[in-house]
């Protein structure tokens, strides 16, 4: 993270505010930045950079000592986002990223100073649909079919099989899958530990289930890849030799897409497909919603229910009488 304010564009700050902003941004970089999750850091950095570039193009101050100046820049940027194809939640996230840096810099926040501005943003956002499309589900039947069709005598496709089976069993997010370490596996207890997660700000971590089917594949992968410690899901070179570095998100995404091709699925699977597919698999097996919430490490039932909306529509309401 670069804290050189000359790179941030046109800031309309008095000397006192500029010094405070510099001190706080430096402290963020040196002591706080690395404590935040990789995905959060990435989103904040990309979103704020995009805002800075917009302000540069339109010769507007990105941040200012006068909240009314910042308000005009933020509103112009918001209007531009609303005219794009970006979805409701993406725009909300981008605005939250800007407010994060305003807060870190201890500059006046236009959302707090102007009720009219806040109402304008919230009112216009309603014009964008809030419902998010869910990832195409990769359910237990799909995972078993893919496992049979994949050539698990090769490192690439063995890793694919282990990846989707582990992800389905644990209901882990992509960020958790990437950081699974050999030491996180408890073969006897049939669990895998995730030290950090999106909904775990205290860093307590949580456990995911490891079935016998998956444990057998995982054991085979670790043996064939000669992995005895460190990351489980490693990068493979173009010649398919195992590297020390973990798989990156884009590599995971490509492997999910490859699995879709193997089972001739309509539409692309994503890194979230095993999470949505896992919820549907559990719903279809009549697993209580409280257990599903616990398995997915959600704080409430909201997300699990959202994932299962299509399944529930076919089982509840009028479906019970017709």
Provide a descriptive summary of the structure in words.
There is one protein chain. The protein has about 325 residues and is mostly helical. The chain has two domains: about 5-125, DNA polymerase, domain 1, CATH 1.10.150; about 140-320, hpI Integrase, Chain A (Orthogonal Bundle), CATH 1.10.443. The protein is built from 15 helices and five strands. The strands form two sheets. The protein has a three-stranded antiparallel sheet with strand order 1-2-3, covered by helices on one side. A two-stranded antiparallel sheet has the order 4-5.
What would you say about this model in short?
By secondary structure, the chain is mostly helical.
Q: Helical region count?
A: 15
The helix/strand class is mainly alpha
* Poorly predicted ranges: none
H/E series, N to C?
HHHHHHHHHEEEHEEHHHHH
Report how far apart the termini are.
59 Å
Shape label: globular
**CATH-defined superfamily of the largest domain:** Intergrase catalytic core
How would a crystallographer describe the biggest sheet?
Answer: 3 strands, antiparallel
Overall pLDDT confidence:
89
Q: What is the strand tally? A: 5
Q: What is the level-2 CATH architecture name of the largest domain? A: Orthogonal Bundle
């Amino acid at each position: 993270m670069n804290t050189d304010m000359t790179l941030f564009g046109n800031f309309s700050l008095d000397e006192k505010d500029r010094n405070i902003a510099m001190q706080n941004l430096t402290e963020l970089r040196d002591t706080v930045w690395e404590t935040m999750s990789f995905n959060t850091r990435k989103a904040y950095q990309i979103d704020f950079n995009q805002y800075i570039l917009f302000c540069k193009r339109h010769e507007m101050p990105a941040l200012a000592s006068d909240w009314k100046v910042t308000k005009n820049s933020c509103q112009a940027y918001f209007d531009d986002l609303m005219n794009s194809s970006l979805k409701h939640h993406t725009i909300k996230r981008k605005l939250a990223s800007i407010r994060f840096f305003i807060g870190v810099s201890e500059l006046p926040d236009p959302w707090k100073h102007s009720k009219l501005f806040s109402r304008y943003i919230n009112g216009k956002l309603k014009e964008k649909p809030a419902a998010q499309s869910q990832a195409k589900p990769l359910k237990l039947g799909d995972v078993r079919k893919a496992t049979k069709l994949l050539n698990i005598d090769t490192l690439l496709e063995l890793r694919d099989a282990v990846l989707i089976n582990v992800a389905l069993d644990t209901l882990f997010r992509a960020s958790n899958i990437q950081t699974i370490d050999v030491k996180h596996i408890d073969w006897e207890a049939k669990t895998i530990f995730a030290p950090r997660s999106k909904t775990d700000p205290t860093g307590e971590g949580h456990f995911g289930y490891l079935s016998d089917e998956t444990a057998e594949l995982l054991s085979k992968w670790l043996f064939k890849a000669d992995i005895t410690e460190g990351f489980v899901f490693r990068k493979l070179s173009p010649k398919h030799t195992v590297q020390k570095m973990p798989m990156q998100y884009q590599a995971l995404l490509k492997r999910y897409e490859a699995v879709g091709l193997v089972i001739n699925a309509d539409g692309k699977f994503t890194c979230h497909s095993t999470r949505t597919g896992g919820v549907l698999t559990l719903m279809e097996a009549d697993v209580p919603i409280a257990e599903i919430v616990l398995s997915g490490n959600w704080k409430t039932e909201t997300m699990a229910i959202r994932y299962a909306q299509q399944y529930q529509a076919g089982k509840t309401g009028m479906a019970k009488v017709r």
